[in-house]
Amino acid sequence: MTILRNFVRHVRDGFISVARHAAMSLSSASAVTLTLLLIAIFLVVSININSATANVESTVNIAAYVDWDFESDSEINDIKSKIENLEGVAHVTFSDKDTELNTVIDSMGSEDTKAVMEEYRGENNPLHDVFIVEVTEGSKIADVTSAIIAIDGIESADYGGDSTLVLMNVLDRVRFGVVILVVSLSALAIFLISNTIKLTIQARVKEIAIMRQVGATNGYIRAPFVIEGMIIGALGALIPIFVTIFGYIWIYQETGGFFLTRMFSLMPPHPTVLYIALILLGIGVFVGLIGSFMSVTKYLRWKR
Amino acid sequence: MIELTNVSKKYKNGVNALYDVNLKINAGEFVYIIGATGSGKSTLIKLLDGEEIPTKGTVKVVGTNVGKLRHSKVPHYRRNIGVVFQDYRLLESKTVYENVAFALEVISMPKPEIRRRVHEVLNLVGLYDKGKMFPNELSGGQQQRVAIARAIANKPKILIADEPTGNLDPEMSIEIMHLLEKINREEQTTILMVTHDIILVEKRKKRTITLQSGHVVADLTQGGYIRHDNT
Ligand SMILES: Nc1ncnc2c1ncn2[C@@H]1O[C@H](COP(=O)(O)OP(=O)(O)OP(=O)(O)O)[C@@H](O)[C@H]1O
Ligand SMILES: [Mg+2]
Asked: Which residue ranges form the domains of chain A, and what is each CATH number?
């Protein structure tokens, strides 16, 4: 009963205080808003890049071509196990040159060309037996490729060029940058909220002094300020949440769900936008909690 | 109830406020603490309510070693001690009733109990009809009585008053004295009263501890400012 009554009182005091210091609360809430807007943009971009990267990473395989002098079953099995034992290799599939040729022929448009290609069946097949190698991590692809080339009986190996690798490196760096930015923007918001709460504390020093004198616990004194900080943080999250929800749905509809190329498909709005909204609200409330908690604790520590 | 053993207090700025103080005050006593300005009276009070920590020696109050108290334990300890100051320290935006109730709300006392106790103490200090008034509508003596009501609302074992009559004229001072004596008698509260008012000390004789430059220079159980060898 008492706990519930205290809680209701603290929440009420928190709202009253936000209202009383409306201008101050609003200014630090707008700092949260700004921070969260940036975080929202980066979240949207990074969630999409993340899924795009995962896409790219999973589709990039190494093709290792077998020398024509190493096509016996035992040689093929030998090479296969050598590749499988390399570090960074996830999965190896073998495809012989007849299958490869069939794939090529099937992909031909006109019946005439197909007929011409049929000539190459059997002894005349100009293709190589091939191992399709999946790597555990995109970043290892270059190393694995050179290791495969070094194996006896491999004629050549490639993985669709350096551009893939460059792209993946860039994406990695973007992801890293996003984390740094989110952390520093949150720190800024925490600082601003703790300053607002400091001013609220200053407006209530006399009350706090009396509470301390009559033996109110630190937690009791702290509660309304922390709740106030959380309210400010939540208020600051409102605009970013709405901007994200409606903005993302709009972008998704305008672009038809793709960005630049078919390879970069956007995440569908439905669960994504809700997750982002929750994350923004969470960050807002958390930032408010940390900022105000720091502020009151510092004040309470200063006096016994 | 209160026991100070070899207590010294040196502030961070180097000021030595108390030297090797030894004191023992029993439950139910009413004690004056007197001394010139800067002699260490307020410092002694701060050591008692845990606001300051002794540099040397031990301060024991109601069985607690106050100097060793962890920061988070200070609030609960403080519920044993009511404090009253010269400047009343009431909340201007709250009524008399609310000011007293506030002290009980913040220690999570149930509401019906708060109502009962606030009426009880307002009665005790003679302000039962002033509950709805605001502090600035009261005289200095009345405001001090509200402060006293607030200090004793939680039935502390000890009431400390730092120059409670410092801002009051002699008549009002005597009223406050009567009130403190009544609390000492009726609520069995141990009372420490810091004062500059020599006339008062002479008039209503009690155990008197005299501080001078941080030393206890006199502790007269029979009371009085100067030694009375003649009577
Ligand atoms: N927080 C503090 N920091 C540093 N020095 C202090 C502090 N509080 C008091 N002092 C010093 O300690 C000495 C004793 O001060 P204290 O307040 O105990 O005196 P007092 O007897 O209460 O004086 P008064 O009658 O004027 O209230 C003084 O020299 C004072 O300047
Ligand atoms: Mg003093």
From this structure: 2-56+166-303 (no CATH), 61-159 (3.30.70.3040)
